[in-house]
Amino acid sequence: MQENAYIKLVPASKQQVITIDEVKDLFRYYKEITGKTGSQLGWEYGESAFPYNMEEKSHGKGKWFYLKSKEQRFKYIMVGVDNESGTCPTTPYIQITLPEGFTHGDKGKANEFCKFLAKQLNAELHLFNGRIMYYYKRK
Fold first, then answer.
1. Is pLDDT of 87 > 70?
2. Which CA distances in Å does 55 have to 65, 120, 130?
3. CB neighbour list of residue 119: distance below 8 Å, 6 or more residues apart
4. Total domain count for the chain?
5. Domain with 55 in it: what CATH number?
6. How close are the terminal C-alpha atoms of the chain, in Å?
7. Please, which residues bridge with residue 96 across strands?
8. What sign does the CA torsion over 114, 115, 116, 119 have?
9. Which of 2, 19, 97, 112 is the most buried (most CB within 10 A)?
């Protein structure tokens, strides 16, 4: 059964709109900083921290992409952007989806990525287990 987590951009977030290309840039930044950590430690931590390739299908262009693993203990994670309908004003969000057949490794990495994205954007994170984490200053 698939599971979803959401990173919502609230009024206190760093930005109020996000595109799929900006999300990809955040993942590239994550890969870059973990690679630098690995070089400081003297081992290939970057490959362990981000064992995925970003792949985009033509029918999902501009809306979603997936992270496909290079390793056997991981499969893939889907990442998309959309706006929450029914709210005024609409709330943009990033959706992280673990499709059917995901591994424990995928879920661990997805949680890690969700927290990283929420922290970078000062957003509200709705985790896979339904709990909410606030990465923005609350009044």
1. no
2. 6, 22, 28
3. 135
4. 1
5. 3.30.310.120
6. 37
7. 5, 79
8. positive
9. 97
Distances (CA, A) of 60 to 30, 37, 42: 23, 33, 38
Q: Does residue 125 form part of some domain?
A: yes
Query: Of 27, 23, 2, 25, nearest to 112 (Cα)?
Result: 27
97: in domain: yes
Which residue blocks in 1-75 are alpha helix, DSSP H? 20-41, 45-49
Query: Is 2 within 8 Å of 99 (Cβ atoms)?
Result: yes
Is-contact 77 113, C-beta < 8 A? yes
Residue 119 inside a domain? The answer is yes
Categorize the per-residue pLDDT at 39 as very low, low, confident or very high, splitting at 50, 70 and 90: confident
Of residues 83 and 85, more confidence is placed in 83
Note if the bond before 89 is cis, omega within 30 degrees: yes
Which parts of 3-103 fold into alpha helices (H)? 20-41, 45-49
Residue 105's domain comprises 3-22+51-134
Tell me if 33 is assigned to some domain: no
DSSP SS3 for 102? coil
Strand partners, 124: 8, 134
